[in-house]
Amino acid sequence: MTEILTATQMRAAEAAAMASGALSGAALMRRAAAEVVAAMRSEWPERCMAGQAAVVLCGPGNNGGDGAEIARLLAALGMAVTLVSLPGTPGPAAQEMRAGFTGPVIAPEELSWELLAARPLVVDALFGTGLSRPLAGGVWGLLGMAQESGCPLVAVDILSGICADSGRVLAEGEYIDHPADLTVTFHAAKPGHFLDQGGFFTAKLVVADIGLGDAGAAISAAEQIELITGPVRSLAKIGRHKYAHGHAVVLSGGQGRGGAARLAARAALRIGAGLVTLICPPTAVTENAARLEAIMLRSVADAYALQGFLQDKRINAVCLGPGLEDPRARATVPQVLALARPTVLDADALTAFATDPKVLFDILHADCVLTPHEGEFARLFPDLAGQLSAPAQSGPAYSRLDAVRAAAARAGCVVLLKGADTVIAAPGGQAAISAATGAAAAPWLATAGAGDVLAGLITGLIARGHRPFDAVCSAAWLHAEAARAFGPGLIAEDLPEALPGVLRHLGA
């Protein structure tokens, strides 16, 4: 996994580097600008050369200082560079960068369609991560003009108008409707590059090293955010008998309701659980038996029989919810949780407690995992969902990270909030993002049953001995990676079948 920093954490890292005497503010700006220009030359070598043109949009803060130095460097390549300057008084380092650029400087209202007609490279160095209030229409309109003119747009740190912590749009009016062509950020990615609308507007992201080293190492575990870039632990299976790889159990609903549980069970088996048993009512045995082979099937007629079966100490992970049906879930969930086994609760196991979530929270334990989609999350945590849906008025705006961290603390267990920007948090604050956005997008996951497969993957990894938080992080990444490997036309049944190829590629 890769560390992600909020805007506040990034400023602290920069301040620590400057306080140590290793770097000055001006030196940081020069390094940042050099990295942006290097990324631009790599992306558009034919445009970053003598005779070509660029327009650099500069705000009054440090982002604008980066922009002024970018303008100077592009001009040094022989390019015709125009700097568009927002009103305001730059700080000392930004003023130094401004003084280094000797080309034309114009006010925002002077930016013309004629200047953009030749489709120059346009650099957005207006606000970056420093945005704290909604961007005025006359400011983000400069970005709109560039995009409407067909100009390649480069965002310095993050596209202006996107909250760096939440990915939510902070802008007056409707905002632009196309992403930046290239975003170059420094030292570490920011949550807003992946969360909410930021995942769309960021598109291609380059993270540049500007020499801060381990300046952000002082961040506490409770404040850390990581981007999931692969499985947290090795997924290789090393010899031994099947029980050494765990026994996962998935509870199914009644007749005609077994499909979701079968998907979960198959995913748990594919990810390497040694055994997987699907438990169903007697009326559903024939249906499930016709569809299952390697997955074992057990008919359980009543709560007493279920309690007896789950006494088997070799059962070390249980999945509740997919296709379970609300009345059965309401009765079964407390019974299973009382055994204190690692338990994944999804779908019906969550909605069954929508009218009184506290009943569920009171019986959860630390080895539980909740996997709601946005609708289920809103029913369990209506106050947190309300903050998420409220208009963003200032930055940093309330984020999915904030909501899921609060939910995990309230529930006392790991919570995963599904989405293209899947967010995971543990009760202590540890958080991670699994981003299927930008170049890593997997839109085919928006299909019925995909969430059931994810629940099964988590259950299978827990059965294999992975800690719940680690299992959730690995499963979320594998889920999206399997979808990317399969591609268009994906249906939920394809996900478990795509896993062997993903695992083979990983050397597992």
Could you characterize the architecture of this molecule?
The protein has 508 residues and is α/β, with parallel strands linked by helices. It has 2 domains: 2-219, YjeF N-terminal domain (Rossmann fold), CATH 3.40.50.10260; 243-389 and 398-412 and 439-478, Ribokinase (UDP-N-acetylmuramoyl-L-alanine:D-glutamate ligase). Helices cover 38% and strands 16% of the residues. It is built from 19 helices and 18 strands. It has helices spanning 7-19, 25-43, 62-76, 92-100, 113-116, 137-148, 198-202, 259-270, 285-289, 303-309, 326-337, 348-351, 357-361, 374-380, 382-389, 400-411, 450-463, 468-486, 494-506; strands spanning 2-4, 53-58, 80-85, 105-106, 121-125, 153-156, 182-186, 205-208, 225-227, 247-251, 275-280, 296-299, 315-320, 343-345, 368-370, 414-417, 421-425, 431-435. The strands form 2 sheets. It has an 11-stranded mixed β-sheet, with helices on both faces. Strands 4-3-2-5-6-7-8 form a 7-stranded parallel β-sheet, with helices on both faces. β17 and β18 form a beta hairpin. α2 packs across α4 and α15 packs antiparallel against α16 (400-411). The protein is elongated and about 80 Å long.
Layout of strands and helices, then pairs:
Layout: E1 2-4, H1 7-19, H2 25-43, E2 53-58, H3 62-76, E3 80-85, H4 92-100, E4 105-106, H5 113-116, E5 121-125, H6 137-148, E6 153-156, E7 182-186, H7 198-202, E8 205-208, E9 225-227, E10 247-251, H8 259-270, E11 275-280, H9 285-289, E12 296-299, H10 303-309, E13 315-320, H11 326-337, E14 343-345, H12 348-351, H13 357-361, E15 368-370, H14 374-380, H15 382-389, H16 400-411, E16 414-417, E17 421-425, E18 431-435, H17 450-463, H18 468-486, H19 494-506
Parallel strand pairs: 2-3, 2-5, 3-4, 5-6, 6-7, 7-8, 9-18, 10-11, 10-13, 11-12, 13-14, 14-15, 15-16
Antiparallel strand pairs: 1-9, 16-17, 17-18
Helix pairs in contact: 2-3, 2-4, 3-4, 8-17, 8-19, 14-15, 15-16, 17-18, 18-19
